[in-house]
Amino acid sequence: MDFGFDPHQSRLRARIRAVLATPGVRRAIDDLAAGTGEPDERPLYRAIGAAGVLAPDWPAEFGGLGGGPMSLAVVAEELSRAGVPDTLHINTVQIVGSVLRAIGAADQQRRWLPRFAAGERFACVLYTEPEAGSDLAALTTRAEPAPGGYLVSGTKIYSLKAALCDVALAAVRTGDPGSRYDGITLVLIDLHAPGVRVARMPSLADEHFHRVELDAVFVPESDVLGEPGAGWAALTTALAMERTGLDYALKAARWYDTARAALTPGDAADSLADLGRHGARADAARLLAWAALARLEEDRFDPVFAAMAKLHTSESAAAVAEWGAALHGAAAAPATGRARCLESAWREAPGLTISAGVSEVMLELIAGSLSGSAR
Amino acid sequence: MRPLPDALHDELRAALRRALHDVPPRGDVHDLLGRLGLHGLEIAPAAGGLGLGLSYGVVVAEELGRAAACDTYRSGCLAAETGPTAAADVAAGARPPAVAPPPAGDALVRARIRQAGYLVGLAAGAHELAVRRSGERRQFGRPIAAFQATGFTLAADLVQIEEARLLTAYAAWLADRDTAGIPEAAADEPRGWPPADGEPELAAIQALAAAAEAATGVTRRALHLHGTYGLTGDAAIQHYYRLAGTEATSLGRPAALWRAAGHRRLTAGPDTEHTTAVLAAAGKDER
Questions:
Q1: Where would I find the Acyl-CoA dehydrogenase/oxidase C-terminal domain in this sequence (chain B) (predicted)?
Q2: Do A276 and B190 touch (CB under 8 A)?
């Protein structure tokens, strides 16, 4: 057991911290905070990406530093600490980039990974459909064979940042419409291609969703990831590997610190036990996330442990947000920065226990692993 | 950073688990631990011990709890640290006094971490019994584990146990680091890191509180999943439940521990002037 960061990790942390402290990056972060509505973080990511620290777990030829999953986690922690919104990074580098590295062909990797690492191009995920949420195998978006590729038609929803992105990783059906796990294919869709229509879906949270209508969008064969029809295994692996829970644990820590700092003397006597309890939950969330990351780092990825980490971290962040709202209220027009943070947390929290695997599915996965159970 | 058991943890756990396999609940394991040479696990080599630290001590405590054993490991370590029994005698297998004065200072921190380990073990042992029982017990034509209400209870309990286990392992690591005098990391930690603000006292308090609630909650739900059979004298599970009731409060009641943890969190807060006012309002008697 070692809960300390090693010198290599500390050096990386110092390096990204220095990048985030440069005037150009600082200015881009301040510009985001000053704006109204959902901000466009692309200029900020371009400024950070120019320093080559966005994808430290990728090989140097793809714009990385040759580290492991833990190095990416160090960067994610520092982005969060500096107040950099994380969705573009999670989707582009952590999800789409990881899938490309796992099953992408060499030319696909060469085409996209260096631009993702540099913050020049951004990716989002198109999995969910109106009738396919937790039960993703029910997806119906069709990919019909066409000369040189496929024509893709269907509706994808709840996609974050789609309006800012260049390319999407989509799960589509190339096989028999009646089947479930067979015939699902992962493809890259050019979001600027004819037939793609992106519409905003307003959300309770600060970040809005998008509905992406695909009307006979041409996808060349060169944009198919892995074997056509065999995408389900890659999809479930990719979903499971998203579940270290680090981003949820970081939110729990940030919201806990804010609620603690905003405590009034009048609240304090009543709140001591809650302060202790939620502090422990936020700590445990972080420890679970790093324990899941350590398993990834050593190629001992364990989908059940990841489900435990996802469940714990997201439920903890939601519990901390609820506590913060109960302490400070979630008024519509909060006055101070702390109150604004806690009010925003209250609106963001319900999404955490749904995204990347709803809590009930995590419980199913864990329950199914218990020996002696007949599930 | 490697928050995973190392090879020695795994070896120690496996050896102890084998040795404790046939020990009945609430069995006396003093001599068994002596044969394994474990009384001196945490005692300095100069006093005839292994000098392995709390990180390994909590593994021993957890396995003892998992077997619902009546051990002298925790009281022996404490006696060696506070003086009633010489460390060399404890390492050599002397029984510690049955009744000891309540510990304080570093000895209390270390005793709480070991206690947390034992409570994690009680919860884990009870959980394993519940998993086995609910896989075997059939009602309405299928194992009761196949019902989602049962499966979800077992799944959520596994997460609660893992939470307490990690908080305990972290507290043990922090206490070992403190003892070894390794300098604190510079002020370049990420937000919310290190857990428990890097204080062994706070880490021990929250590990014990979390482990105590895991033990009382998980053993209660595990007994429930046994049905009425679980209440009978034949059922091993009732021993876990009984032990959880006494062991969960022996070094501080969870409610008081959570308040003490909250008080420490305030003193580590970022805004000193503000915090002073909050602390004054909260009262200064929380420890």
A1: 107-245
A2: no
Count Cβ–Cβ pairs < 8 Å, chain A vs chain B: 221
**B206 and A295: CB-CB below 8 Å?**
no
Query: How many Å apart are CA A142 and CA A217, to the nearest integer?
Result: 10
Nearest residue on chain B to A310, alpha-carbon basis? B159
Taking an 8 Å cut-off on Cβ atoms, the answer to whether A280 and B132 are in contact is: no
What is the complex's ipTM, to 2 decimals?
Answer: 0.94
Interface touch B255/A273, C-beta < 8 Å: yes
**Chain A residues within 8 A of B146 when measuring between CB atoms:** 373-375
Inter-chain residue contact B191 with A308, CB threshold 8 Å: no
What letter does residue B28 receive in the DSSP assignment?
B
Q: Do A250 and A76 touch, CB atoms closer than 8 A?
A: yes
Q: Mean pLDDT of successive 10-residue segments in chain B (287 residues)?
A: 94 97 96 96 95 96 98 96 92 91 93 98 98 96 96 98 98 91 61 87 98 98 97 95 97 96 83 67 58
- Per-residue model confidence as pLDDT tens digits over A47-57: 999 999 999 99
Domains recognised in chain B with CATH numbers: 1-101 (1.10.540), 102-287 (1.20.140.10)
pLDDT in tens, A102-136: 999 999 999 999 999 999 999 999 999 999 999 99
Question: By CA distance, what is A290's nearest residue in B?
Answer: B3
